[in-house]
């Protein structure tokens, strides 16, 4: 079929460590990149701003959360709060005249600092306690942002983000330009995460995920690595929040980063697949699109068939769908869409034979 | 500062704290029985409130018939959730089980208000509206009734641990495999714990729903219940009472005294701050058992 892998013929460690040893994967990646870059050219402006742009940004955020949840095995129920810190910090920096790139990095740093302070608080504990502490973080950060006028400009205020200007020279005013900026951030984050699992750092995180005190026994400093996982993941979250503020919302309010957004992100990671980069992207696209598609379908159904579906029900369908998806995937395919993709790939890889190896 | 005002805040807060302890009771029961943290406890309280409203107001049943019916329904819901979802997750990593309970929470929060509507429903159980005067202090009658009912239910659950089923539950919480090997049906015990926590959640939902009305915000009880359960120690029922009173009083005092200063909303984060401080200072809570891990 499409894949060809007749025996392992690596003759050097470099060849063995290749990210994409199969030619088909490399070609597919090239096609995907070309499609992603040319999206503004063939997709209408409405679909570009309403679908492609947010999906790219949510994929970035989901990858950051996936590093923590899938990579290091630490639950985070307050990731939207991390993104909020990044968004507010970067917008304030941008309004103070800091160039766009530095403002985004500053947002990431602020999120990483505050995120790892909360992370350090939670590092004494794990599992359930960690989940609950990060939930508490979500509430405390929400409260802090909404009730400190210096941050949000008042609880009902909207903060306008300055326009994007690359290197202080190239103004980016078009929707396509903002999409490309978001895509660039997404690609950088994705290539970082793809490589993490091949480094000693990534392997240390994996040992902590599997059994943290056993990791400690074999010489992995679990406190240090957990903290750095929090730091890295919060940094990515902050950057994603900053990109969200600058490129998509362009005006931020505290409501954009509530608990529901955290839950949505967790759903993206679980539905996509823990610890997988392509899973984060698939999950982000799926969770983002599913309620919209369902709503559109339902509205069409109501119009077509004179069905009596109340407005209330339609408004609550997304939540019910997230919940059902989380339960369903955890019960049936705990490793998510990435595992389904992997199964198909492995099937084709050994076709026409039935078993691998 | 006005002592009478502070006393009034503290008393009403203590009564509300007992409601929170009732939600925490479900979390503690399930944690004791199966070592699973149930993040869907708040949603169960919300479902209880909605079902009570549907039976008492929508269907027009009298309260003495509607309330037992709600409790039966919620016991069934708890057992069904355990049977259909949780049992199949047995043996998975804790992170997965926590996420599945969160999934239940999200789904219930979407389905139930979707069916019965998200607007605030009035749930009238015939509790008087007139406040009771205790010297210069005003006490909300609904809080008083709710607090007393909560106290009775928590007391009953302490007694329950002395009965045959309670002893089974204690054995299971102590060591599941040992309990299993002496012939205790561990699955039944865990299902029982889920059923009972469905009942306690429903009681909290009904009581609080009759005070502030029934809508999805009842599910925010989760954070308060978690705060109480963690402060008391996740596996201690008596700890719930102390922690419930502490959380309730702290919340009421902070909200009463700080709200005028910072402009409202402090009530919502007191529980979050208590959770964070407990985890930082004393992760096993005031009365919880200290877990020691060995490789």
Structural summary, described in words:
The complex is a heterodimer of chains A (357) and B (295). Chain A is mainly alpha-helical and 357 residues long. Chain A contains 15 helices and four strands. Chain A has helices at residues 13-16, 23-42, 45-71, 79-95, 100-123, 128-147, 149-152, 175-196, 200-210, 212-217, 222-249, 259-272, 277-305, 311-332, 336-350; strands at 159-160, 164-166, 170-172, 251-252. In chain A, the strands form two sheets. A two-stranded antiparallel sheet of chain A has the order 1-4. Chain A has a two-stranded antiparallel sheet with strand order 2-3. In chain A, strand 2 and strand 3 (170-172) form a beta hairpin. The longest helix of chain A has 29 residues, at 277-305. Chain B is mainly alpha-helical and 295 residues long. Chain B contains eleven helices and two strands. Chain B has helices at residues 3-34, 41-58, 63-86, 94-116, 141-160, 164-174, 176-181, 186-212, 221-232, 237-262, 267-281; strands at 132-134, 137-139. In chain B, strands 1-2 form a two-stranded antiparallel sheet. In chain B, a hairpin with a 2-residue loop joins strand 1 (132-134) and strand 2 (137-139). The longest helix of chain B has 32 residues, at 3-34. The model of chain B has no long low-confidence stretch (mean pLDDT 85). At the A-B interface, helix 5, helix 6, helix 10, helix 12 and helix 14 of A face helix 4, helix 9 and helix 11 of B.
List keywords for this structure.
heterodimer; A: 357 residues; mainly alpha; two-stranded antiparallel ribbon; 4 strands; 3% strand; globular; B: 295 residues; 2 strands; 73% helix; transmembrane helix (chain A); ABC_transp_permease (chain A); transmembrane (chain A); Branched-chain amino acid ABC transporter permease (chain A); LivM-like (chain A)
Biggest sheet, spatial arrangement of strands of chain B: 1-2
* Number of helices, where a helix is a run of at least 4 consecutive DSSP H or I residues of chain A: 15
Terminus-to-terminus distance of chain A: 17 Å
**Number of helices, counting only DSSP H or I runs of 4 residues or more of chain B:** 11
- Biggest interface and residues each: A-B, 51 and 48 residues
Q: How many strand elements of chain B?
A: 2
Oligomeric description of these chains:
heterodimer
What's the mean pLDDT score of chain A? 85
Spatial shape of chain B:
globular
* Low-pLDDT sequence parts of chain A: none
Structural class of chain B, by secondary structure, is: mainly alpha
Strand content of chain A: under 5%
Radius of gyration of chain B: 19 Å
The average pLDDT of chain B is 85
Helicity of chain A, in percent? Answer: over 70%
């Amino acid at each position: 079929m499409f894949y060809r892998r007749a025996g392992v013929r690596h003759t050097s460690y470099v060849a063995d460590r290749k990210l994409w040893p199969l030619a088909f994967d490399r070609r597919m990646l090239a096609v995907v990149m070309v499609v992603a870059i040319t999206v503004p050219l063939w997709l209408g402006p409405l679909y570009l701003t309403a679908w492609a742009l947010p999906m790219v940004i949510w994929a970035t955020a989901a990858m950051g959360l996936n590093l923590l949840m899938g990579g290091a095995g630490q639950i985070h129920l307050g990731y939207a709060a991390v993104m909020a810190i990044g968004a507010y910090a970067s917008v304030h920096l941008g309004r103070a005249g800091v160039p766009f790139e530095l403002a985004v990095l500053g947002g990431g740093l602020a999120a990483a600092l505050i995120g790892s302070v909360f992370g350090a608080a939670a590092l004494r504990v794990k599992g359930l306690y960690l989940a609950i502490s990060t939930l508490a973080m979500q509430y405390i950060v929400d409260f802090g942002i909404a009730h400190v006028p210096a941050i949000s400009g008042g609880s009902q205020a909207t903060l306008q983000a300055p326009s994007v200007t690359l290197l202080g020279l190239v103004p980016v005013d078009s929707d396509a330009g903002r999409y490309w900026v978001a895509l660039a951030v997404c690609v950088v984050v994705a290539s970082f995460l793809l490589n993490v699992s091949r480094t000693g750092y990534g392997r240390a995180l994996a040992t902590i995920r599997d059994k943290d005190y056993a990791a400690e026994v074999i010489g992995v400093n679990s406190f240090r690595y957990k903290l750095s996982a929090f730091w890295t993941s919060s940094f990515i979250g902050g950057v994603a929040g900053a990109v969200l503020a600058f490129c998509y919302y362009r005006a931020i309010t505290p409501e954009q980063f509530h608990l529901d957004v955290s839950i949505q992100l967790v759903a993206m990671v679980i539905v996509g697949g823990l610890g997988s980069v392509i899973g984060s992207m698939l999950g982000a696209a799926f969770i983002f699109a599913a309620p919209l598609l369902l709503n559109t379908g339902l509205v069409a159904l109501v119009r077509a068939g004179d069905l009596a579906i109340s407005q209330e029900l339609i408004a609550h369908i997304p939540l019910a769908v997230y919940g059902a998806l989380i339960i369903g995937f955890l019960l049936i395919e705990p490793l998510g869409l990435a595992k389904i993709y992997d199964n198909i790939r492995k099937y084709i890889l050994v076709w026409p034979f039935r078993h691998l190896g | 500062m006005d002592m009478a005002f502070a006393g009034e805040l503290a008393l009403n807060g203590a009564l509300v704290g007992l409601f929170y302890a009732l939600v925490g009771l479900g979390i503690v029961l399930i944690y004791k029985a199966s070592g699973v943290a149930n993040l869907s406890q708040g949603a169960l309280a919300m479902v209880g409130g909605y079902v009570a409203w549907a039976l008492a107001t929508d269907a027009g049943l009298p309260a003495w018939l509607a309330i037992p019916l709600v409790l039966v329904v919620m016991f069934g819901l708890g057992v069904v959730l355990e049977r259909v979802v949780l049992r199949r997750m047995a043996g998975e990593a804790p992170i997965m089980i926590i996420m599945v309970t969160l999934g239940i929470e999200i789904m219930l929060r979407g389905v139930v208000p979707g069916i019965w509507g998200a607007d605030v429903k009035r749930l009238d159980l015939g509790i008087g509206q007139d406040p009771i005067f205790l010297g210069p202090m005003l006490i909300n009658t609904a809080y008083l009734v709710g607090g007393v009912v909560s106290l009775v239910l928590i007391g009953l659950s302490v007694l329950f641990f002395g009965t045959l089923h309670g002893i089974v539950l204690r054995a299971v919480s102590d060591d599941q495999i040992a309990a299993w090997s002496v012939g205790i049906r561990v699955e039944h015990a865990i299902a029982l714990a889920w059923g009972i926590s469905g009942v306690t959640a429903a009681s909290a939902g009904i009581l609080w729903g009759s005070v502030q009305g029934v809508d999805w915000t009842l599910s925010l009880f989760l954070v308060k219940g978690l705060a109480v359960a963690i402060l008391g120690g996740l596996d201690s029922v008596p700890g719930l009472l102390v922690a419930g009173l502490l959380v309730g009083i702290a919340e009421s005092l902070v909200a009463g005294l700080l709200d005028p200063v910072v402009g409202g909303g402090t009530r919502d984060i007191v529980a979050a701050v208590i959770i964070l401080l407990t985890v930082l200072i004393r992760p096993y809570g005031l009365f919880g058992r200290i877990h020691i891990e060995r490789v």
